[in-house]
Q: What sequence folds into this?
């Protein structure tokens, strides 16, 4: 079964959008995933087909109505058993920050149904009423959930079997081990007076692996102390004995 993505949105024309090109686009053509955007407005019931209303308590902007969005959710879930079995996610800056670990879980499953917000977001009652998992893609505010959904889908799709080949599904990637990945270099060896670290030209696979591990640790510690702290907390006992030899990179 392909990974099935259903996206509830006011802008269905944004899908597959950029995911129709490159690796994700090829995977879509090969049937490795399916993309099914659903227009939320089709589930509005009044004559103006309104999907939003003013915020209770006052203030700027508009709020997506729980009844209209729930009708869209229920129609999608009711269409098939496999639809109903998929996780239901809502993109919102108030959600749990997306992690590579969660992306891996989602990619290993049957697919996702994603709610894309607009305006001030959704009526809060929706989340409890339909067991919605609220997901944020970072601490900044977008104008709508569509871009966030594309980000989440891109992260999942590249992990689907056959999409990227063996090269990039390994443990080396940033976040897979709780660390940032080590830096990369390629030819030319010298560029604008800068060279590639000698160890990478040594052909000594053990030294190269040790250097990469060292750089992953050093860079994570300096760039992302939050990740580093979590990594240190999680690490039971480090088997790495190669540190000293690596100090002179
Ligand atoms: N008033 C809201 C922001 C609404 S932005 C607040 O301050 O929390 C409009 C929509 O964009 C949201 O409903 C959500 O679907 C999407 N969005 C904005 N930022 C996002 C983020 N960081 N992660 C996921 N979705 C986001």
A:
């Amino acid at each position: 079964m392909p990974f099935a993505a259903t996206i509830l949105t006011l802008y269905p024309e944004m899908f597959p959008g950029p995911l129709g090109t490159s690796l994700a686009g090829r995977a879509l053509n090969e049937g490795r995933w399916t993309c099914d955007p659903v227009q939320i407005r089709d589930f509005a019931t009044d004559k103006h087909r309104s999907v939003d209303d003013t915020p209770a308590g006052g203030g700027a902007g508009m709020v997506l109505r729980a009844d209209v969005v729930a009708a869209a959710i229920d129609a999608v879930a009711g269409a098939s058993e496999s639809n109903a079995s998929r996780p239901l996610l809502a993109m919102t800056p108030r959600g749990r920050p997306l992690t590579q670990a969660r992306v891996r879980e989602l990619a290993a499953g049957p697919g996702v149904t994603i709610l894309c917000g607009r305006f001030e977001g959704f009526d809060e009652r929706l989340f409890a009423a339909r067991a919605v998992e609220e997901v944020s893609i970072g601490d900044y505010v977008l104008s709508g959930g569509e871009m966030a959904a594309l980000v989440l889908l891109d992260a999942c799709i590249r992990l689907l079997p056959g999409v990227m080949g063996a090269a990039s599904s390994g443990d080396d990637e940033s976040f897979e081990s709780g660390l940032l990945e080590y830096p990369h270099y390629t030819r030319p060896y010298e560029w604008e007076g800068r060279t590639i670290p000698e160890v990478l030209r040594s052909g000594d696979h053990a030294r190269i692996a040790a250097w990469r591990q060292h750089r992953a640790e050093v860079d994570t510690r300096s760039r992302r102390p939050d990740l580093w702290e979590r990594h240190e907390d999680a690490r039971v006992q480090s088997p790495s004995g190669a540190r000293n030899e690596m100090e002179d990179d």
Summary: Residues 241-245 have pLDDT under 50 and may be disordered. Residues 62 and 224 are 36 Å apart (CA to CA). Residues 91-94, 116-118, 120-121, 136-138, 140-142, 144-145, 148 surround S-adenosyl-L-homocysteine (CB under 6 Å).
